[in-house]
Amino acid sequence: MLQVQEIQCQYQSDIVVDKVSFHVNDGDICSLLGPSGCGKTTILRAIAGFQPLTHGKVILRDHCLSQPGKLVGPEQRNIGMVFQDYALFPHLSVKDNIRFGLRKQNEREQNSAVKRLLELVRLEGIAHRYPHELSGGQQQRVALARALAPSPDLLLLDEPFSNLDTELRKRLSLEVRDILKELRISAILVTHDQQEAFAFSDQIGLLHGGKLQQWDIPFNLYHEPSNRTVADFIGEGCFLPGVIGSEANTVTTEFGTLMGNRAYHWPPGTPVEILLRPDDIVLSDFGGITATVVEKVFSGSATLYTLSLPTGSRVEALLPSHRNYAINETVQINTEADHLIAFSREELLQGSA
Questions:
Q1: Which DSSP category does 132 fall into?
Q2: Is the dihedral of CA 44, 45, 47, 52 positive or negative?
Q3: Residue ranges of the ABC transporter domain (predicted)?
Q4: What is the pLDDT of residues 12-62, one digit of tens each?
């Protein structure tokens, strides 16, 4: 449905988006995820028609919307957009804000559409209120209804939940996802919050330094990071040194020889680092190795422990909070890593150079 083909955007001589490619299928809900300044909002603006390209193409339903020297106007793209600050017209009522994109329809059709959209976003009964009379969550719903009113092919959301408190943000993002799935409207969300991206998206693109590092389903981004940048950004975890074992799917570490779920392409004896997530580390009543608690972060149902191993290496473990260990206390641990991701140390050194 949407094809983004090797797009490049720059401000003056600075390249801020560098040869980024991905596609969005009908009904897919996707996210562009990454730290501030990585280029995700620029990509959204390029898709919307507010940012010209210096290379590549944006194609929607087989129609080229953008390429160097060509820029179809935002109003001609049939793409809806919800901004971070909602951008509601303060002098217009809720009803008139939603009707703004329906000016080509007659009054009866407009009223019918507004009624249907207010029901969809659960705001029946406030059609005559003004934006300043609404809560942040209500304003966000009105902005969504206004963007959905013209039945866009694609909806773009630029950090629309960032001004809301944590609980409302979680609830509203799931409600918006349900609405989009019900209407089968494709969407792209820009966010720096990976938990929000995981809960909201079918596909996620992780950006760093203007480059797309990986475009994948949330499960693969967490368990199958394509490079060290993705592994560092997504979730918690630590890297533990090891060497490739005599079998192609084994890595020898201070936990012993660990068996991966893949054959590694390096020869035996190659120095590597393996990614261990907090849920890969488990308590061991028998055997295992002794680790010392050096940090702990309580989060209610679980506690995230940072543990020092005998060699000085560190790992993280997410344990039920009723197992309360003190700083400097020792525990016996082992690994249960179903997805054993390894990076060669030579590649890591080249990546950091």
A1: G
A2: negative
A3: 2-234
A4: 889 999 999 999 999 999 999 999 999 999 999 999 999 999 999 999 999
- Shared domain for 278 and 340, answered yes or no, is yes
- Per the structure, how many domains does the chain have? 2
- Tell me how far apart the alpha carbons of residues 96 and 88 are, in angstroms, rounded to a whole number: 10
| pTM (predicted TM-score) | 0.89
Three-class DSSP category at 350: helix
Whether residue 138 sits in one domain with residue 246: no
The tokens describing 209, both together, are: 């330094």
Q: Which two tokens stand for residue 147?
A: 């963007």
- Looking at the fold, whether 82 and 201 belong to one and the same domain comes out as yes
Which of 227, 250, 273 is a domain's end point? 227
| Region for 99 from its dihedrals, namely left if φ exceeds 0, alpha if ψ lies in -120 to 50, beta otherwise | alpha
Which one of 196, 227, 258 terminates a domain?
227
Rounded to whole angstroms, the Cα distance separating 200 from 219 reads 13
Q: How far apart are CA 176 and CA 178, in angstroms?
A: 5
Q: pLDDT tens-digit profile of 189-221? A: 999 999 999 999 999 999 999 999 999 999 999
